[in-house]
Amino acid sequence: MACALACAELAPFSFSGPEVLKLDWGTRALNVSDVNQDELSDLIVINNDTAQIEILYQLAADAPNTSGKTRLNRNRWEAPLEDARFESESIT
Q1: Comparing 50 with 7, which gets the higher pLDDT?
Q2: Which of 15, 20, 22, 56 could pair covalently with 86 via S-S, beta carbons 3.0-4.6 A apart?
Q3: What element of type H or E holds 47?
Q4: What does the alpha-carbon distance between residue 65 and residue 84 come to, in Å, rounded to a whole number?
Q5: CB 69 within 8 A of CB 59
Q6: Which long-range contacts (CB under 8 A, 24 or more apart) does 71-78 make?
């Protein structure tokens, strides 16, 4: 009961809307880490089909999207829109 009173004073918490990011079917071993030490969680995946390590650097919410990438795809098997705040880098 003591926690119920103390926890009620915390700031409200909520989730934002979904962010869509297309990854290849061959991606494996998802890791989350702050790769570039900017205090944001970056994603690292291994793609065995293309023999690449893909690093997805998370951009700050107020940072402009310098890549200019917003992808639409009408193929029903793929994600219809890619709008996540990540800058992609592939290492072979």
Answers
A1: 50
A2: 56
A3: strand 42-47
A4: 10
A5: no
A6: 71/22, 73/22, 78/22
**Most confident range, picked from 20-24, 51-55, 62-66:** 51-55
Residue type for 35, please? V
Length of the chain: 92
Question: CA-CA distance, 91 to 79, in Å (whole number)?
Answer: 24
pLDDT tens string 5-37:
556 677 777 777 777 777 778 888 888 989 888
Distance CA 34, CA 40 (A): 6
Place of tokens 């700050």: 60
